[in-house]
């Protein structure tokens, strides 16, 4: 069966456009071809993109589809071969079960006060009336949070060094060259320390050195009292009684550090923009936060309805992850009126789903009230994907966003450096982020 129709633009240009203007690609294809179309990327692959909730449900949950780790090759240079992102089938499900508990329930609540403390510390360091880069500050907070959750590292020399090296490494993926490394694997040639990819590999080695040192130290000095993820992974045995090896540990830790902080930092930067851009939203949110009292319980913050609506609307309007990971058709299946052959690769467009006028009237308007007026199904509002590969950190990310926002808004007075600026979304590595020059002031 032929693939669904799509733009007949040259595949080299299609790939170049996807790298430089992903929203333009999705908007123009959806306007021309509707709910299902094919993207053709030279040298890489053809991908069918879908955005209609019934189709999404089938793609993400039906046994006609798989969610193979091999389709996520682009993450390999960063997360390594033994990461949950690259695993498939039974092995993938088992690894998810292992990693999930620290991100839920009581464990999560126990992080509430530390997240608040970290937020205050970072915000306190900003000078009065000095423009600060919002994404960088949010990244500092979320990186500290994830290092605490993953390693139990709250302060100290190794934490500062690891933080610095991780930011340097991860920043590469956010540049234009970095985006090309992601999509054009042939550019990844390590020709020594002076070649672009050689430099990236050196940065990677610098991070790994510290991660392996932490693993060694923790193996040598076990402490059952610690509740961080590294402790949990160190104690894990498979059915044959084998413990996870150092490479497995390193790859999973790197996965959580990578997937767990830039996403949340970017979402927070967007949230601060919208809240300060729209006075009505600011007023309503502040009166809700004030009604919670002086030192609100983290769970009261987590449950606050308008704060929840603001966070949801932030993740709807410019979803930090524009699409899910790929899914693969296992047995021929009909989606949005089109038959797809086994082996077809499919991406769910989170962005296009969130821009559907049948679900979200005036979708370009930031209006948190829409989340108070109606409930959306998990295939209508899908910022964290769905099914067997749904975001592992969803609960932590939602919790973190609310605690950080509430802490900052109640303890600091911020404003946009340029109130008339209408912030545009740009690709930052694999994410959709505010423009790099987005700054705010603390007064
Ligand atoms: C606002 C913040 C975040 C957003 C928008 C986000 C979004 C996503 C999305 C869309 C996926 C792919 C889901 C799919 O294909 O169905 C994903 C996967 C993943 N996320 Fe997140 N994420 C966020 C924060 C986090 C955090 C805090 C962590 C960990 C601490 C995390 C860990 C992961 C992992 C490990 C996967 C891969 C799961 C697998 O392969 O089974 N994410 N995320």
TrEMBL record:
Pfam family, one: p450
Cofactors demanded by this protein: heme
InterPro entries to which the protein is assigned, alphabetical: Cyt_P450, Cyt_P450_CS, Cyt_P450_E_grp-I, Cyt_P450_sf, Cytochrome_P450_monoxygenase
Entry superkingdom: Bacteria
Keywords: Heme, Iron, Metal-binding, Monooxygenase, Oxidoreductase
Keyword Oxidoreductase annotated: yes
UniProt xrefs under PANTHER family: CYTOCHROME P450, CYTOCHROME P450 12A4, MITOCHONDRIAL-RELATED
Family that this chain belongs to: Belongs to the cytochrome P450 family.
Name of the featured protein: Cytochrome P450
Organism annotation: Pseudanabaena yagii GIHE-NHR1
Lineage: Bacteria, Bacillati, Cyanobacteriota, Cyanophyceae, Pseudanabaenales
């Amino acid at each position: 069966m032929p693939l669904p129709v799509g733009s007949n633009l040259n595949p080299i240009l299609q790939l170049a456009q996807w790298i430089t203007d992903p929203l333009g690609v999705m908007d123009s294809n959806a306007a021309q071809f509707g709910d299902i179309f094919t993207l053709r990327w030279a040298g890489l692959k053809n991908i069918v993109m879908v955005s209609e909730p019934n189709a999404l449900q089938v793609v993400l949950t039906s046994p006609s589809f798989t969610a193979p780790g091999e389709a996520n090759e682009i993450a390999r240079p960063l997360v390594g071969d033994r990461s949950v992102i690259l695993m498939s089938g039974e092995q993938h499900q088992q690894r998810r079960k292992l990693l999930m508990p620290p991100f839920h329930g009581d464990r999560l609540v126990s992080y509430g006060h530390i997240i608040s403390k970290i937020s205050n510390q970072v915000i306190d360091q900003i000078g009065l009336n000095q423009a600060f880069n919002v994404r960088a500050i949010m990244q500092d907070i979320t990186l500290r949070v994830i290092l605490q959750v993953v390693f139990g590292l709250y302060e100290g020399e190794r934490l500062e060094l690891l933080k610095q090296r991780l930011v340097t490494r991860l920043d590469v993926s956010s540049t234009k060259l970095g985006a090309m490394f992601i999509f054009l694997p042939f550019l990844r040639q390590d020709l020594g320390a002076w070649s672009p990819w050689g430099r990236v590999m050196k940065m990677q080695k610098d991070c790994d050195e510290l991660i392996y040192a932490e693993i060694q130290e923790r193996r040598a000095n076990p402490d059952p009292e610690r509740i961080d993820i590294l402790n949990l992974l160190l104690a894990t045995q498979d059915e044959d009684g084998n413990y996870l090896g150092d490479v497995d540990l390193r790859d999973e830790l790197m996965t959580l550090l990578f997937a767990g902080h830039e996403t949340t930092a970017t979402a927070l930067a967007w949230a601060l923009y919208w809240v300060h851009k729209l006075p009505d939203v600011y007023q309503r949110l502040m009166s809700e936060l004030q009604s919670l009292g002086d030192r609100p319980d983290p769970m009261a913050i987590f449950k606050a309805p308008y704060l929840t609506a603001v966070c949801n609307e932030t993740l709807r309007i410019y979803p930090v992850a524009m699409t899910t990971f790929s899914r693969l058709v296992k047995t021929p299946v009909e989606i949005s009126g089109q038959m797809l052959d086994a082996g077809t690769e499919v991406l769910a467009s989170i962005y296009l789903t969130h821009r559907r006028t049948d679900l979200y009237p005036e979708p370009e308007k930031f209006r948190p009230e829409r989340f108070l007026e109606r409930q959306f199904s998990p295939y209508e509002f899908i910022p964290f994907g769905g099914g067997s590969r749904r975001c592992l950190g969803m609960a932590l990310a939602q919790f973190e966003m609310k605690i950080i926002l509430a802490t900052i808004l109640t303890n600091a007075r911020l404003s946009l450096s340029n109130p008339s600026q209408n912030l545009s979304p740009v690709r930052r590595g694999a994410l959709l982020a505010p423009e790099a020059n987005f700054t705010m002031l603390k007064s």
